[in-house]
């Protein structure tokens, strides 16, 4: 099937979906400072980034057999077990990293969809609800590659995708500035209170 801009398609028509390696292939995962980082659900932030502060790593000599699970810029890591739907867009500095079995890699095929747009689309409340609705039941809900591949995707023209990505990026930057300002004001408030109490 040939996919064109401006139609509704499935995620599987736009991207390669690869669930993470089985846990047995990551049994040497540890907290040592050396090795290849492995992204887990707890490393994924609400802002769709990877928090690099508490990463676990796999020894370099264990990585060769996991070559098909490496990450590159523009990939999306999506949580498919547990906290379903959390996702992060992979930035250049994370290339060559791995992801664990609770995640899936979504890698865009061709040039019809911007990874940034796809990340925003998959994080929308409507799509997140659809993932939960389609999830396999059990003690821990899960999504497999087939379920993810059948998710519908609205595919606007590339210029419209780019426009949305830029608008959301501007909003995120403004929100970050406001959060940083609020944090500084909280620190100032506490300092003023401490000074006042010291004078009493």
UniProtKB/TrEMBL annotation:
- Annotated keywords: DNA-binding, Restriction system
Q: Which Gene3D superfamilies match?
A: DNA methylase specificity domains
GO biological process: what's one of them? DNA restriction-modification system
The Type I restriction modification DNA specificity domain extends over 7-176
Q: Which GO terms describe its molecular function?
A: DNA binding
Task: Write down the InterPro entries for this protein, in alphabetical order.
Answer: Restrct_endonuc_typeI_TRD (IPR000055), Restrct_endonuc_typeI_TRD_sf (IPR044946), Type-I_RS_S_subunit (IPR052021)
State the family it belongs to: Belongs to the type-I restriction system S methylase family.
State the name under which the record lists this protein. Type I restriction enzyme S subunit
Lineage summary: Bacteria, Bacillati, Actinomycetota, Actinomycetes, Pseudonocardiales
